[in-house]
Amino acid sequence: MNAPRTTKPKPMGRKFLLLLVAAFLIGALSTGHWLASVQFPALSARLFSVPALLAGFCCVALTSVNLLLRWSRWHFLIRRFSPHLVTRDSLAVYLATLPALLSPFFVAELGRVFLIRRRFQTPASYLVRIWFIERYLDFCVVSLALLCALTQTGAARLAFLPFSISGTLALGLAVPLVAAAFLLFLLTLRRRQALLVATSSLLLTAFAWALPIAALHFTFGVLGAPLTWAGATQSFAQGTLLGSLTGLPLGVFVTGSTMIEVLVDLGVQEDTGVLGVLVYRSGTAYYAVFLGILSLVLFRKRLLALLRGVADAHFDEIASEYEGEIPDHVRERLLGKKIALIGRTLDCHGIGKQSKGLDLGCGQGWYLAELRQLGYAVTGTDYSQGQLDRAQLHLRSKSLDPGELIRADAQQLPFADDSFDFVYSVNAIHHILEDGAQHRALREIVRVLRPGGVFLLHEINTENPVFRWYMGYLFPLLTKIDEGNEEWVLPTALPFVPGASWERDRVEYFTFLPDFVPKLLLRAFAPLETWLERSRMRRMSAHYQACLVKLPPPQRSVES
């Protein structure tokens, strides 16, 4: 008796491929149907009309902001695991991988793992988790937007479901979607961070996806077929979700045809629907791919350096252009404020002219030159030889002897114990990034100070969360001074240093006006800034000075 013949089941991969091909064919047939319903001469004429061009420009502008918000979310999430990720590198990687939108289910975006892992030592598993969280957040927010739109337009029929969704069912689906999003963060991040990071990421995602909906609403308003916000949301979300679920690159044929079908159901003429979706898709999805290809070309050297794991000497590289990164009137204003503050503080501690001082991280020698002109004997140190070379030129331009300009690591200062009456550091400590390096530098500073000597810490004040975001995300893109990966020292959390004590009740807060304010406006608003520096809002200032005093050595008791 022969054994019964068993049929070998088809592999899952083959079944998935068949579903993908079926979705592609259905979408292609649907797109062909819509294109066949319009007259091409009339469509091409309207495509290059003023309203269509205006709508396209609006789509490009809002898509650019959408991409920046999505990059901010990605950068924010990645920095939970790569705190030293350089902002410019992050943006270059994000933009250069936008062509990954052409891959099934956007899986080619995982190429970011190879670009970041080697240079910043981020475990690949974390980067994959971030990718999954991003995709889920997008699905969650777009789905919630669709559910809200359906409750506004009535029991609207979904193109891919045989039933209608009521408001009750929409709420019932919304709760587990959000709950699952928070659970993802709890599983990925430390519990203390999960709630804040999840909330921030959800808000960024919501703002980001509100922009393409606004673009669609504007597009059809300009084309003479105005949509309600609910209608625009339904068309966008329904097309985006269905196109994404098929896994087709950019939802080709599926997303656009689904959007047109919804628009026609909402009362838009077929030819206007086809035109509007064509303009919209060109200014959103296809523009993003074009921007990605352009970024690959523009950032190719930076990307290759990341792949090789090369870290450049940042301040050596920008030494020649550092001065031009800060407007002259802003630099002179800060220089005057800080020099006056340093002088007053030294006077209060009985440290007069001719005293020996150390400029730690002297940069291009601006503060060093001013204090030498006032009579202080200041030695300059910096880790960057390029900056020291520029400092030498600056001192000579002031007819000052360059004197001692020493290349030194703040963690191993080449000076004997008790060498200086005072040490100061202007916006340099936050560039010391290695684990424990700032504490080692502070201990070295105390070592080279004489007993009773002072260390004046001038730092950026990032207590204000808006200013902290500006310094971490926007300022590094506007200038080359900071890289967005700085380790900020907060005035309310000054680190403990053995053998010294912070004068915590004498922290000086100053400057509120942004660096980009024109010179005339700076003068006009100077009284307001002075008032803010003395008010209860002073803790939200842009800069601060803290004073660390070296304690005398402990006295040993002598037994009689």
Record field, number of beta strands: 8
Q: Taking all residues together, what is the mean pLDDT? A: 84
Q: State the end-to-end CA separation.
A: 112 Å
Query: Approximately how much helix is present in the residues?
Result: 55-70%
Shape: elongated
Largest sheet: 8 strands, mixed
**Beta-strand level of the residues, as a percent range?**
5-15%
Derived from helix and strand composition plus strand pairing, the structural class reads: alpha/beta
Order of helices and strands: HHHHHHHHHHHHHHHEHEHEEHEHEEHE
Q: What is the total domain count?
A: 2
Unreliable spans are 155-168, 556-560
Q: Roughly how many Å is the radius of gyration?
A: 30 Å
In DSSP terms (H or I, runs of 4 or more residues), the helix count works out at 20
What structural keywords apply?
single chain, alpha/beta, Rossmann fold, 20 helices, 8 strands, 57% helix, 8% strand, elongated, disordered C terminus
Short description:
With 560 residues, the protein is α/β, with parallel strands linked by helices. The protein has helices at 12-36, 40-47, 50-78, 87-96, 112-120, 124-153, 167-188, 191-222, 229-246, 254-265, 270-283, 285-298, 300-308, 314-317, 328-348, 366-373, 385-397, 437-448, 465-478, 519-534; strands at 356-360, 377-382, 405-407, 420-426, 449-460, 500-502, 508-510, 543-550.
